[in-house]
Design brief:
This protein is mainly α and about 325 residues long. It has a single domain, classed as Glycerol uptake facilitator protein, CATH 1.20.1080. The chain has 15 helices and no strands. It has helices at about 5-20, 30-35, 45-85, 90-95, 100-120, 120-125, 135-140, 145-170, 175, 195-215, 225-240, 240-245, 250-260, 265-285, 310-315. The longest helix has about 45 residues, at about 45-85. It is globular.
């Protein structure tokens, strides 16, 4: 007599076929089915399943994870470089102007343009150009990114933020560490932490509201990067004296970790995600979750998409 449980064999074959499949994220849909073939609630079974899912995600999507790190790294190099150029007292550009508002406007234009360039770049088009844990968490809440992809995106975003500041420090040396530049750190202004928290909450809410509305509007979707960049430029020009203008936990942590500047770090880890999640909640109530096509900010390209994507179906409807 052959002692083989056909259910166990079926589960094994299903697991093997899914791990070899490129659309691995659909594995989650069969999770309940596969668990019925093993002991329900078994800690070992849950751990094995989670480990297999994690390894599969890493093998399949590591290029996108590295792209996310690179994007925030580039953004931080740009922030430190323009910070030195516009605010360091030894900079000829800084010496030629005494108007702080003008400096902030130029800084805003520089960083807004950097964001637009990243979102429109080949790596931005492919990874979705989040380079912000708050953005990734919002799309996770909306069901557009798989949990392990979200976890790796966030981890690599933090790595990229630190790497970008370190690269700027390596090239520019003590210029980045000068008090006028301060590793491009985001800190509460003279109005205090409470107003900084509220300001970060509001600007993050507005940014995500605009991104969701524009990216899911057929006539405007391809210009999402321009809208996001324009908001970043405006915020740096006007809002930065209140909170430093972050909207990005990984961006703030990169400067904090390299410069050992931990002042009010909690603000930038709580307000941006909260603001963006609130924006997503409002958007889904006004429209619906189904109205969100994808987690890519720029989907008008032929690069592969690793998200739970409904862009083509909505575009053709």
């Amino acid at each position: 007599m052959e002692l083989v449980n056909p259910k166990v064999t079926g589960v094994s074959e299903s697991l093997r076929s899914k791990m070899m499949s490129s659309d691995w994220w659909q594995f989650k849909e069969e999770r309940g089915k596969s668990r019925r073939g093993s002991r329900p609630g078994s800690p070992a079974g849950v751990l094995a399943y989670g480990s297999a899912e994690m390894i599969t995600a890493l093998k399949a999507h590591w290029p996108e994870y590295l792209m996310e790190a690179s994007e925030l790294g580039i953004f931080m190099i740009s922030a430190c470089t323009f910070g030195v150029l516009l605010f360091h007292p030894a900079s000829p550009v800084s010496q030629s102007m005494n108007n702080e508002l003008l400096k902030r406007i130029l800084m805003g234009v520089a960083m807004g343009s950097t964001a637009i360039a990243i979102i429109s770049s080949p790596i931005g088009k492919r990874s979705g150009a989040h380079f912000n844990p708050a953005v990734t968490l919002t799309y996770l809440r909306l069901g557009k990114i798989a949990p392990w992809d979200a976890a790796f995106y966030i981890a690599f975003q933090f790595i990229g933020g630190i790497a970008g500041v370190l690269a700027a420090l390596l090239v520019l040396g003590n210029l980045v560490a000068h008090a006028a530049v301060n590793y491009s750190a985001t800190l509460p202004g003279t109005s205090g932490p409470a107003r900084a928290f509220l300001a970060e909450l509001i600007i993050s809410f507005i940014l995500m509201s605009v991104v969701l509305t524009v990216s899911n509007t057929r006539r405007l979707g391809r210009w999402t990067g321009l809208f996001a960049g324009a908001l970043i430029a405006t915020y740096i020009s006007i809002e930065s004296p209140i909170s430093g203008m972050s909207m990005n936990p990984a961006r703030t942590f990169g400067s904090a970790a390299v410069g050992h500047i931990w002042t009010a770090l909690w603000i930038y880890f709580t307000a941006p995600p909260l603001g963006m999640l609130l924006a997503a909640e409002l958007y889904t109530r006004v429209r619906s979750v189904r109205a969100v096509a994808c987690a890519k900010l720029n989907h008008y390209n032929n690069t592969r998409c690793i998200f739970r994507c409904n862009f083509q179906a909505q575009r053709n409807s």
